[in-house]
């Protein structure tokens, strides 16, 4: 079994600060970890097309995307877990009745079922993507959709959680938006695929995260670190806590783990 070490980094709030910028100390720390012979990888709720520049900048070719439902190891696709198409149709119909827009994501693009909506605009603005989703209400038909964004204000999600508990899980990331993922999908499941591909001892796996969609990953990975800026309810699930992303959090965490 391989003794090589791999480090999974969340993006938003972990590699990126609130301005969606990678601090210089983080760039230096990731480079140092790679120079030490470790593999730097990404585990994110984002789709691959949303962080191509980041992967290029950090020299990363292994990534767990869309909360574990699209996994690439060294530029090779090794795992996919799309949303159930029939149930996606059902939730789309319910969302339309409730004036809750949906954005459909595959590995290459994102399209919304409505041309515009204030909740969609406000939620997506926080991601600072630099582009808007296209408008195609039929984008999800006849293709694999690995994640959707349901723009449902906080407090109005109960009907979806109850009606679709057999098929989907809902992870809130904004007061107006939730990730919709397959019931059996998570970053932890995606990491398991990479670990199996590498024939790696789990004790050689490290992870850094800060958000609700990182909980399973932080619980699963033995050497897990919550960022100092992580949500308070997330921190207890990590084995260690480092400083915040803007206070050299990745650098300090990698040093704490004796990886650099």
TrEMBL record:
A GO CC term attached to the entry: cytosol
Domain of life: Bacteria
Pfam families: Hydrolase_3
GO molecular function, a single term: magnesium ion binding
SUPFAM superfamilies in UniProt: HAD-like
InterPro entries linked: Cof, HAD-like_sf, HAD-SF_hydro_IIB, HAD_sf
Cited PANTHER family: PHOSPHATASE YKRA-RELATED, PHOSPHOSERINE PHOSPHATASE
UniProt-recorded name of the protein: Cof subfamily of IIB subfamily of haloacid dehalogenase superfamily/HAD-superfamily hydrolase, subfamily IIB
Biological classification of the source: Bacteria, Bacillati, Bacillota, Bacilli, Bacillales
